[in-house]
Amino acid sequence: MKISTQKSKKALINMKCVLGTALTIALIMPTSAVSQTSPATVNLGTSGSFVVLAKSGISNTGTTSIIGDIGVSPNNASSITGFGLIADASGQFATSSIITGRVYASNYAPPTPAKMTAAVSDMQTAYTDAAGRAPNFTELYTGNLTGKTLTTGVYKWSTGVLISAGGLTISGSATDIWIFEIAQDLTVANGATITLSGGAKSSNIFWQVAGQTNLGTTSSFKGIILCQTMINILTGAAFDGRALAQTAVTLDGNSINNNSTLGLADLDLENGISMYPNPAQNYVTIKNSNNIKLNVLIIYDVYGRLINTIELRDMQQEKTIDVSNLPSGIYMLQIQGEGARTTKRWIKN
After folding, report:
1. Residue 186 has pLDDT above 90, yes or no
2. pLDDT for residue 32
3. Torsion angle of the four alpha carbons 106, 209, 126, 191, in this order, in degrees rounded to the nearest 10
4. What percent of the chain has pLDDT over 70?
């Protein structure tokens, strides 16, 4: 009887250990690993036609490259600084040597004022929509997303969110949606990179920020920012998405585009586009065997900082580029045209 009792006690102890271990594993397992049904997308309305949209102003310093339209309302064109605006003959928009697209402001000729009023209203509606989504995850990692991998879902924080130099990975399919509700600031540290995996698209990632957004120097950011205050993009930061601010947007030598807007798809680097010599000294030749016209070459350094933007002017065969003014080093050369792009590593001797 005594032996039987001891065996029963031992079995009970073993069961408690198993249950305790299972509970511990469940508590420490990262909630980002939990599979979720993808939420519905956030409808940007007409604000979705802009890569940069603000109410009080857009300022730029340094050598910035923007692919897409930018606009300001209710403030007028005088609040768009550092772009060297050239008024179109129609009076409805302006252009800039650093923008592949158009610049709109509330004081331009009709129908632009109505267009801008609608875009700002749609931006604010989209912000409210994103802010009101029921979360799948709350206070995850207490707001420090450095080194984490996040799957599809709605995430909510009552604090700010930090992405340090270790970066963040967003993983999911091309149809998955991510909505991040942030009650305070969004801070992306210098050199931090957001990496997309599994087919995830920047156009499906929404950052709803009640505070200020700061993208650090040489950082690489992905997604659509719906910010209630300022979006501050520091020197050399690269941004694939949209910056939609209810106050101002500040830029400093940045590369900004939204690939989904342009319908860009990666070309096969070994099929149709080639660059030679590589390494090169003073000149590099781009050869195009695809049945498309190429219109722009963007040169980045190895840290992702924009170096130069060169118009290719509907190049269909080949073009030789003078690179004698570039210092020796490793560069990334991105070519774009007619709904396609390719990026190739290139060395300057």
Report:
1. yes
2. 39
3. 80
4. 83
pTM of model > 0.90: no
> Residue 272, exposed/middle/buried by CB under 10 A (0-12, 13-18, 19+)?
middle
Write down the domain spans for the chain. 31-261, 265-348
- What's the pLDDT at 228? 98
Q: Give the pair of three-digit tokens for residue 146.
A: 């450095």
8 A C-beta contact, residue 71 and residue 105? yes
**Which range (105-119, 160-174, 245-259) has the least confidence?**
245-259
Q: Which residues contact 44 (CB under 8 A, 6 or more apart)?
A: 122, 123, 126, 224, 242, 244
Place of tokens 């500040």: 250
| CATH (one of 3.40.630.30, 2.60.40.3080, 3.40.50.1100, 3.20.20.240) for 265-348 | 2.60.40.3080
